[in-house]
TrEMBL record:
UniProt-recorded name of the protein: LppC putative lipoprotein
Transmembrane segments: 12-34
GO molecular function: enzyme regulator activity
PROSITE patterns for the chain: PROKAR_LIPOPROTEIN
Pfam families, per the entry: LppC
SUPFAM superfamilies noted in UniProt: Periplasmic binding protein-like I
Superkingdom: Bacteria
Regions annotated as coiled coil: none
Species: Candidatus Enterovibrio escicola
Keyword Membrane: yes
Keywords: Cell outer membrane, Cell shape, Lipoprotein, Membrane, Palmitate, Peptidoglycan synthesis, Signal, Transmembrane, Transmembrane helix
GO CC entries: periplasmic side of cell outer membrane
BP terms from Gene Ontology: peptidoglycan biosynthetic process; regulation of cell shape
Amino acid sequence: MCKITHKLEAISRIISPIALALALSSCMIIPSVLRTSQSDITTPALESSTFYLLKAEDSTGKRKVDWYLLALKALIKEKQFVQSDVLISHLSKLMLTQLQLSEWQLNRAKLIQQKGQPQIAIDNLNFSPSWQLPNLQYKRYYLLEAELYQTVGNLPSSLLSYTEAYPYLAETFEKEQNCERVWALLLQMKPNELKELAEHSNKILSAWVKLMILLHQYDGRPAEQQYALNTWLIENRGLPTNQYLPKNLKRLQAMNIIRPERIAILLPLSEQFSAQGETIRNGFIQALLDNKNSENPATMFYDTNAMSMTEIVSKMKSNGVQFVIGPLQKDKLDSFLIASQHAYPTLALNIPQDATIKTNVCFFTLSPEQEAEQAALHIAQNQHRYPLIIAEDNQFGHRVSEAFSRKWQEITGHTAEKAFFKNLATLHKTVQQVFGLTESQSRIQQLRQILDLDIEAEQRSRRDIDAVYLIANTSELTLLKPFIEVAINPNVKPPKLYASSRSNNRLNGVDKVGELNGIEFSEMPLLVKKDHPIFVRFHQMWPELGNGMTRLYALGMDAYSLIEALPQMQIFPEYRFEGQSGMLSLGDNCIVHRTVSWVMHGD
């Protein structure tokens, strides 16, 4: 059994009784031979805090402080924060060398960080300019500072700290990782923030910021971005970071960007869906005419209702087509993919049943499922917990409500309740059932029969539903809203009502419909602002066409813009392209995602 000496009594003044008990129980396993690396204060703590504290009691002077600093590291690692605070306070009263002071500061900041106080950790991290320290300490200092600034949302300061760390990085992996971090932060920064940093005295930071500004200048034009990157590399050939370009920039540099000179547009231009096909075509042509930045490709339109896909593919070969947009209908798309054997880079305007990765094909459509998924995210962000989905009892209603449910489950881990109505005549009954009024009335009737009394009682509605997502057109919505309002008891907070863009199927943008006031719905930006130049021009040219056709016109315009933007979206997964139909980004399986706006009926 270990003998308790005056040395252990000294330890108890620094560590808690719990740690002292650990010391007693573990004294039999203390190694007899001390390895040199165990006493290097700049390395991670490999032993227990008890081990280091006992070593400190066996030492004096500078070596004693070294052991205390290693003990502090171990205590933080063990999450013994109270004991860590005690030891930090004890060390602050001792005479420390510059290296020991730097280690004390770093570990104090790490402790405060682990307590969830990053700003206080930043305030307590301040190396003296007069210190002469090993590179390792400066590396740790700047990387920790960068991490803390990023945590508090101060991206410019985080960027500066990461770039300040670069000269002290020794390993290739560290340098590559550092450049990736810098680039990831630059991608998150706003244009005004980038401009402020462009002339910074730190040459590495200034050069990176200027490159990001250049690439933003050519958004949606990857060929110009590639040229700008290569020019930047030549102009900054002495920059040490150039040999450690982030992966996205390496892909841009190596990419063989080919501008298609001949494009095929596959749309229904006769018979069924010809009105939709013509509207998409008009949007595409308008975007082509509006483009003043580069030479436009030769464009050929093929009527998918007038020719078979085999005939169309044969004509495309004869015409030297290099890029395809369409088809629009799902069955035509399936036939085209088989007939073409994925020989052409294609932006399909629908999504096939099997949308797994297909060579040379991306997908872009006005997907109601994507809209429903965004509704789930929006409703969750608005702090609702118990949403109800009401939709028509058909294939469309079930498909879209299922998309909402999947996303809600993914976000919250809970299941969203669903209710379906057969037609307009059954709307009232559906609302009464889902809000519990039918069940409440049934209980009242049972009570009257049991008591054999004509008692007075009021139906009680459910109290748990705090949001309702309505997948309905304007006619259905004008009935659903008052039915829901009547179904809710006066003393119950009514649920917030949300709707899809189907509720805005008017002739001219967002009309004020009194019955719909207060309902928040999703819509593409083009339809939210009636003074939008493209919206105004569209309705001047086709005043008889409603919002549904306006959306297809926007789809056609964005399809043209995506010809050039798609390569950039494939290189930079975080890239967002501001289209007429919404903010566009690229998701899994090369499916273009469209982020919609939210607006209130009545605004």
